[in-house]
Amino acid sequence: MGLNETPSANRVHIGIFGRRNAGKSSVMNALTNQSIAIVSDVLGTTTDPVLKAMELLPIGPVVMIDTPGIDDEGELGALRVKKSYQMLNKTDIAVVVLEGETESPEDTALIEKIRQKNIPLAIFHNKSDTLPEDFPKKEGRLYGSALNRQGIDKLKAEIARLAQNSEPDRKIVGDLLDPLDIAVLVVPIDSAAPKGRLILPQQQTIRDILESGGISVVVKETELAETLKKLAAPPKIVITDSQAFGNVSKIVPDDILLTSFSILFARYKGNLETAVRGAKALDSVKDGDKILISEGCTHHRQCGDIGTVKLPAWVKKHTGKDVEFVFTSGTEFPDDLGEYALAIHCGGCMLNEREMKYRYAYASEQGLPITNYGIAIAHMHGILKRSVEPFKDIREILE
User: Which of 272, 256, 273 is nearest to 264 (CA)?
Assistant: First the structure.
């Protein structure tokens, strides 16, 4: 990703779904004016979801998702269908492509599933140019031909309308700041930090502070105490990387708000309350329990990695129990969560809001407590109540 590109997690994810040879790939290519997806008359040409980050006017930055056919057959076909349905978990706007006026049982089931998930939906009857002019059209649906670009502008306009209606007005931290308020960001520079740049949550938080008229001061943990002394006015808030929570809390005076990037992103993506409640499960872990530690991105593990090294060590010290840890990353998230006593998820900076909400909701439906790195660490260091001080509705849960 280029330095000035919008992160994929912040882009509107537009999923194209339908049966094999309904013209999904042709519709995607017509919408984008690019040959993103391979087009062929051979059934099942798209065998895996294809995700492409791009600009789609008039919407702006988007991720286009082309999916395998939902009527695929055989053992491999069933896996492809499963992959298509999994893409719904990260889809902000769904486009179902039908072939002509036909709506198969698979199409109907897919449309119903999309509506159950409350995903904004556009239904496009492709290849409609081959039908008689007087064929009955269904209200609320779009008709045209990707091959001849008929109806594509109307489909694009409908997608833009759905995107505008579904886009939430959210802030990471800017809503907690008045103009010229100082926010101090504590950012470790260690072996796990990407050389020459800050990681995504830090970049996004700085941008959010600047857009809100605040002042962003970025320091390492080792320079925090001296920085606070040198500031002419105390900061409104200190935001720390989770792994430095314990030491930072000892340095920051009690009258200054203190929180972490993980906590801010849990709130930003709508999961803070669930994550705070889930952290309490750390106090009831038993010997032999399995704990799932899940990351939304894939990266090279470094010595002292927070997810696979530091967090398990803190959990064992806090619980005093002999527990087993299972690690997943990227798009991996278990279908069956019944074997786990607790799930601890990363902040999810590489996952969009819909997928993060899906994972939290899926865990809750299976009765599994789920929290995130920063909230778990704050709880284990005894500073969770202080770290959610900026959020009144969340404070009440702990009182």
Answer: 272
Q: Which residue has the tokens 């398990």?
A: 312
C-alpha 147/C-alpha 152 separation (Å) is 10
Q: Give kind and range of the element (H or E) at residue 12.
A: strand 12-18
Residues in the chain: 399
Give the 3-state secondary structure of residue 199.
Answer: coil
The pLDDT tens digits for 109-162 are: 999 999 999 999 999 999 999 888 888 899 999 999 999 999 999 999 999 999
The secondary element (H helix, E strand) that includes residue 111 is helix 105-116
What is the per-residue pLDDT across 276-290, written as a single tens digit (0 to 9) for each?
999 999 999 999 999
Structure tokens at 262: 């993980």
* Rounded to 5°, angle at Cα 135 from 132 and 137: 135
Q: Which residues pair with 115 in a beta bridge?
A: none
CA-CA distance, 74 to 142, in Å (whole number)? 32
Decide the pairing of beta strands 237-240 and 93-99: unpaired
- Strands 50-56, 60-66: pairing is antiparallel
User: 219: buried, middle or exposed (CB in 10 Å: 19+, 13-18, 0-12)?
Assistant: middle
Q: Please give the torsion angle defined by the CA atoms of residues 176, 179, 180 and 186, in that order, rounded to the nearest 10 degrees.
A: 30
What residues have CB less than 8 Å from 349, skipping those under 6 apart? Answer: 7, 9, 199, 200, 201, 204, 265, 296, 297
What is the residue whose two structure tokens read 């013209």?
A: 23
- Please give the Cα distance from 126 to 132 (Å, whole number): 14
pTM exceeding the 0.70 threshold for the entire prediction: yes
Nearest to 141 by CA among 163, 113, 122: 122
Q: List % helix, strand, coil for the chain (3-state, nearest 5).
A: 40, 20, 40
> From CA 161, how far away is CA 216, in angstroms rounded?
35
Rounded CA gap, 26 and 45, in Å? Answer: 12
